[in-house]
């Protein structure tokens, strides 16, 4: 499948997919006051989307408080879309929730009317499919995600997982890995390229974490990644770069004419990331 058939996801003025990467900036406050302060500090940076990492919220199990805070963030952010992510400890986050509690929290957020995009970990038991369904009932697009904080799976496995996420009905498929060497970084980038050239029906977002993976955060879009996460203060994952630095590099690449691979570019025939039977 060619990248020209990939659907984009539009929220207000922001489009995820289609070439220029969306810059997503996380906020991680433990209280409403901390979050308000973080959002106030975002003013001078350019965030296309703001991600609330709700797993760092001190009263995560108080659903009405979480929903009220989502409304407050949405109000403060005005036209900037709000992505809400509850990252569980299984995937490097702070939330210790049973699958049912995880599902119910995400369902309440989807129904709240305050959330523009919702992250769901596609490996969270049988829960991910139900969350996608609930979110779509409320017209909230879903980013399915998967994180490997210790290693980088082989490129064909990264492609297979991204395919599984889009098969689940996700609107965006996201994969973060931890590289142990440069070959791992190349595996992530090659998987991104093969996924976007051959299989993607939805925008994909990929990154290699840690210092070794920095190149994936500033040039991942050239391989097919539709967004990059960047920090305005506290990073939400190892290796996240400063948002203004990322903007500067993106502008330099844009001025140089560096663009994602054209639709008619021939895919490399012997790529390690090739998955013959991945659901395309
Ligand atoms: O999934 C991701 C990507 C991320 O882990 C990163 O490596 O930038 C940061 C998280 O906040 C976000 O939910």
From TrEMBL:
Active-site feature positions: 147, 174
Keyword Iron: no
EC annotation from Swiss-Prot or TrEMBL: 4.2.1.10
Top-rank EC class of the record's enzyme: lyase
One Pfam assignment: DHquinase_I
Pathway: Metabolic intermediate biosynthesis; chorismate biosynthesis; chorismate from D-erythrose 4-phosphate and phosphoenolpyruvate: step 3/7
UniProt binding sites for 3-dehydroquinate: 51-53, 87, 217, 236, 240
Keywords from the named record: Amino-acid biosynthesis, Aromatic amino acid biosynthesis, Lyase, Schiff base
Region (Disordered): 258-280
Top-rank lineage group of the source organism: Bacteria
Matching InterPro entries: Aldolase_TIM (IPR013785), DHquinase_I (IPR001381), Type-I_3-dehydroquinase (IPR050146)
Catalytic reaction annotation: 3-dehydroquinate = 3-dehydroshikimate + H2O
Any coiled-coil regions, as ranges: none
Amino-acid biosynthesis recorded as keyword: yes
Function: Involved in the third step of the chorismate pathway, which leads to the biosynthesis of aromatic amino acids. Catalyzes the cis-dehydration of 3-dehydroquinate (DHQ) and introduces the first double bond of the aromatic ring to yield 3-dehydroshikimate.
Subunit structure: Homodimer.
Family per record: Belongs to the type-I 3-dehydroquinase family.
Official protein name in the record: 3-dehydroquinate dehydratase
Upper lineage: Bacteria, Bacillati, Actinomycetota, Actinomycetes, Micrococcales
């Amino acid at each position: 499948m060619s990248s020209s058939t990939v659907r984009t996801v539009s929220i207000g003025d922001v489009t995820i997919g289609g070439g220029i990467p969306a810059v997503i900036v996380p906020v991680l406050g433990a209280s409403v006051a901390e979050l308000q302060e973080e959002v106030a500090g975002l003013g001078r940076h350019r965030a296309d989307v703001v991600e609330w990492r709700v797993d760092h919220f001190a009263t995560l199990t108080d659903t009405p408080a979480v929903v009220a805070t989502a409304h407050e963030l949405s109000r403060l952010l005005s036209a900037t879309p709000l992505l809400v992510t509850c990252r569980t400890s299984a995937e490097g986050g702070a939330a210790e929730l049973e699958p049912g509690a995880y599902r119910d929290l995400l369902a309440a957020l989807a129904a709240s009317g305050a959330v523009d995009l919702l992250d769901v970990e596609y490996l969270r038991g049988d829960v991910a499919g139900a969350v996608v369904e609930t979110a779509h009932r409320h017209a909230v697009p879903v980013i399915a995600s998967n994180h490997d904080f210790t290693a980088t799976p082989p490129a064909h496995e990264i492609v297979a997982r991204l395919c599984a996420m889009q098969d689940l009905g996700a609107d965006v498929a996201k994969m973060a890995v931890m590289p142990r060497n440069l070959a791992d970084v190349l595996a992530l980038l090659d998987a991104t390229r093969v996924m976007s050239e051959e299989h993607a029906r939805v925008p994909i977002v990929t990154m290699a974490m840690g210092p070794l993976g920095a190149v994936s955060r500033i040039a991942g879009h050239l391989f097919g990644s539709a967004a990059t996460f960047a920090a305005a203060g506290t990073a939400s994952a190892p290796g996240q770069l400063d948002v203004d630095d990322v903007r500067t590099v993106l502008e330099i690449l844009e001025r140089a004419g560096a663009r994602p691979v054209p639709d008619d570019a021939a895919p490399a025939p012997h790529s390690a990331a090739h998955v013959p039977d991945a659901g395309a």
